[in-house]
Design goal:
This protein starts with 12 loop residues before the first helix and ends in a 14-residue tail after the last helix. A two-stranded antiparallel sheet has the order 1-2. It has a single domain (12-415), classed as Up-down Bundle (Na+/H+ antiporter like fold), CATH 1.20.1530.10. The protein is mostly helical and 416 residues long. It contains 16 helices and two strands.
Length: 416
C-alpha cells in the first residue's frame, strides 16, 4: 500500500479499529456504568422471544448482534470462500492443498490441547472448538505492520489459511453448536436454499432478489435451532460469479460489504463481546482450565498444527513452502490470533454463563501473545529482506477485478 492511501484503505486499519473497540468494551464494562451496560445487552426486549418450546430464547440486544448483525460477517466470508473456490487458488487442488493441510492441522492441534487441559470436567469440553479459529482481519493487519519485506507468498498463505479456517469454524458451528432442532423450520430453510440454487442455475443475476430470499432463509434458520449465521454462508454460495458481460455480481457484493464488515459489524461485535469485567475475577480466573485451554491452544496449538500440516503437504506433493521455516513459524504463530471467531464460538459454547469470563481471558490473552510472538519471529526471519514486489492490498485489487488471486511469486500461474 502506498503512502498516499487513505487511512481507511490501509491493511492495518481494521485491526486498529478492533483493538480500539476491545479497549472501549473493557473500559465500559469496568466503569460505573458496567452493570447498566450488562442489563442493556441482556434484558429481554418487550417480553419477546425467538423460537418455540425448549429452544425459545429471550430477544435481547446481545441476540440481535450475534444472530442478526453477524450474518453479514458470515455472508462476506462466504463470498470470499466461493470466489477462492471458483476462480481463485482453491480451484487448483494442488495450490489449495498447502493452506488446507495447514488449516486442518491448525484446528486439530488447538482442540486437542484444550481437551487435554479440560478432560477432568466434561462440562468444559463443550468449548473444544474455541481456539480452533483464526481472525482474518486481525492476523492480516498485524502481518502488515512488517511492511513489504514479508514475501507475498507468505501473505497469501496466511490469507488462504484463515479463509479455510473460517470454513472449518462454520462447519463446526453447524454440526456441534446447533440445539433443539425444529423440523418444519429446517424444511423451510431447505426449500428456500433450493430456490436460491435454482435462481443461480436459471441465470438470475439481480442481487436484490438473492438478498430477499437470503433474509427468508435467515428467518427459518433463526427458528430452526441451527445457528442463524449459517444462512449468510448458504446465501453467499448461491450468488452468481459471472454475468454474460464478464462482470461479477459476487465480487460487486463482496466489495460493497467489505467496509461495512470491517468498520461496523466487527467493531460492534467486539464492543459487545470482547470486554471482560474484572470485578470478582482473580488469579483463579486467569488459571481456569478453560482460559488455559483456549490460550495454550491459540499460542502453541496453532503453530504446531499448521507447521505439521503444511510441511506434511509439502513432503507429499513435493512442493516448496512459501517461506523459510522461520518465516512459516512466524506466520503460523500469527494464525493464533483467534479473536472474532473464537469469541463467537465461545458465546455459543457457554453463552453468558460464569464461564464466559475465562473464555474471554483465554481468547484475548492468547490472541495478544500470538500477535506479539508472531511479530517477533517474523520480524527476525525477514530482517534485511528486500521489499516484496507487491503488497496485499494490490493482490486483493487483482482478485476483485479478475476474480483471481494472482500468485506474483509464480507468474506462470497467472494464466489460469
Amino acid at each position: 500500500m502506498t503512502s498516499t492511501a487513505h487511512w481507511w484503505e490501509r491493511d492495518t486499519t481494521p485491526g486498529y479499529i478492533l483493538i480500539a473497540a476491545t479497549i472501549a468494551s473493557f473500559l465500559a464494562l469496568n466503569s460505573a456504568f458496567g452493570e447498566h451496560i450488562h442489563h442493556l445487552l441482556q434484558d429481554q426486549i418487550a417480553g419477546l422471544s425467538i423460537g418455540f418450546g425448549e429452544g425459545a430464547r429471550p430477544l435481547n440486544l446481545h441476540l440481535v448482534i450475534n444472530d442478526a448483525l453477524m450474518v453479514i460477517f458470515f455472508l462476506y466470508v462466504g463470498l470470499e470462500l466461493k470466489r477462492e473456490t471458483v476462480e481463485g487458488p482453491f480451484k487448483n487442488p494442488r495450490e489449495a492443498a498447502l493452506p488446507m493441510a495447514g488449516a486442518l492441522g491448525g484446528m486439530i492441534a488447538p482442540a486437542l490441547i484444550y481437551v487435554a487441559l479440560n478432560a477432568h470436567e466434561p462440562a468444559f469440553l463443550r468449548g473444544w472448538a474455541i481456539p480452533a479459529a483464526t481472525d482474518i482481519a486481525f492476523a492480516i493487519g498485524v502481518l502488515s505492520l512488517l511492511g513489504p519485506r514479508v514475501p507475498a507468498g507468505l501473505r497469501l498463505f496466511l490469507l488462504a489459511l484463515a479463509i479455510i479456517d473460517d470454513l472449518g469454524a462454520i462447519l463446526v458451528i453447524a454440526l456441534f453448536y446447533s440445539t433443539h432442532l425444529v423440523g418444519w423450520a429446517l424444511g423451510g430453510a431447505a426449500v428456500t436454499f433450493g430456490v436460491l440454487l435454482m435462481m443461480n442455475r436459471a441465470g438470475v443475476k439481480w442481487l436484490a432478489i438473492y438478498w430477499l430470499f437470503g433474509l427468508v432463509l435467515w428467518g427459518f434458520m433463526l427458528l430452526s435451532g441451527v445457528h442463524a449465521t449459517i444462512a449468510g454462508v448458504l446465501t453467499a454460495m448461491t450468488i452468481p460469479m459471472r454475468r454474460g458481460d464478464g462482470g461479477s455480481p459476487l465480487i460487486a457484493a463482496e466489495r460493497t460489504l467489505k467496509p461495512w464488515v470491517q468498520f461496523a459489524v466487527m467493531p460492534v461485535f467486539a464492543l459487545v463481546n470482547a470486554g471482560v469485567a474484572l470485578h470478582g475475577a482473580g488469579v483463579e480466573t486467569l488459571l481456569h482450565p478453560i482460559a488455559l485451554g483456549v490460550s495454550f491452544g491459540l499460542v502453541f496449538g496453532k503453530p504446531i498444527g499448521i507447521m505439521l500440516g503444511a510441511y506434511a503437504a509439502c513432503a507429499a506433493l513435493k512442493q516448496r513452502a512459501p517461506g523459510s521455516p522461520m518465516q512459516m513459524l512466524g506466520v503460523s504463530i500469527l494464525a493464533g490470533i483467534g479473536f472474532t471467531m473464537s469469541l463467537f464460538i465461545g458465546n455459543l459454547a457457554f453463552a453468558m454463563s460464569d464461564l464466559a469470563t475465562p473464555v474471554r481471558f483465554g481468547v484475548l490473552g492468547g490472541s495478544f501473545a500470538s500477535a506479539v510472538f508472531g511479530l517477533i519471529a517474523l520480524g527476525f526471519a525477514t530482517r534485511g529482506a528486500p521489499p516484496a514486489p507487491g503488497v496485499l492490498a494490490q493482490e486483493e485489487e487483482l482478485a476483485e477485478q479478475r476474480g483471481v488471486f494472482e500468485n506474483i511469486d509464480a507468474p506462470k500461474n497467472a494464466k489460469r
